[in-house]
Amino acid sequence: ELKRRLQPRYPSIAYVPDRFAVVVLSAVFAWKFGWDKQGLEILGDVRAEGRPFTVHFPFQLSMMQHVTDAFSTAFIIALLGFFESSVAAKSLGTGEGKVSNGLQNMTLSPNRELVALGVANVVGGLFMALPAFGGYGRSKVNASTGGKTPMSSVFLSLITVICTLFLLPYFYYIP
């Protein structure tokens, strides 16, 4: 709220990472004041197993017994993820030639969106990744901070990989 009120007077305040500061401060306070010993649940110890990016073939015979249990849930997740990605793309894209939130001249195709999500999730499935979709919140933040090309998503992905590989021990006290 404070950031929203100060932004008209100080436009550069949009680049202050307020959500990041909240996460870091909550982890520091949980560590300093021992909130985990008082009942607050924290992330705890997260360890990677083996080498990063190990490929696991998803169509092993030992996994086929779980297909009937997982199919309906997986189908609903895929459908909801596609709808969320389409809503994010249409609300932040240009649509009929108008400029919206910094994204200019972006043509949208639901078919391309579905193919891109499918390929991304099949490749991610080989590495035991969670399903990935274009979230509205992330797209809105990206547009409001000036990200106009897909390179902003590439940089975000690289930062996520670096955090996952090297910074996981520091996430221990995140509530």
Automatic annotation (TrEMBL):
PANTHER family: SULFATE TRANSPORTER (PTHR11814). The chain crosses the membrane at residues 12-31, 70-93, 114-134, 154-173. Its main location: membrane. The lineage of its organism: Eukaryota, Fungi, Dikarya, Ascomycota, Pezizomycotina. This is SLC26A/SulP transporter domain-containing protein. Keywords: Membrane, Transmembrane, Transmembrane helix. The keyword Transmembrane applies. It is a multi-pass membrane protein. Pfam families: Sulfate_transp. It is found in: Membrane. The keyword Transmembrane helix applies. It comes from Cryomyces antarcticus. Residues 12-175 form the SLC26A/SulP transporter domain.
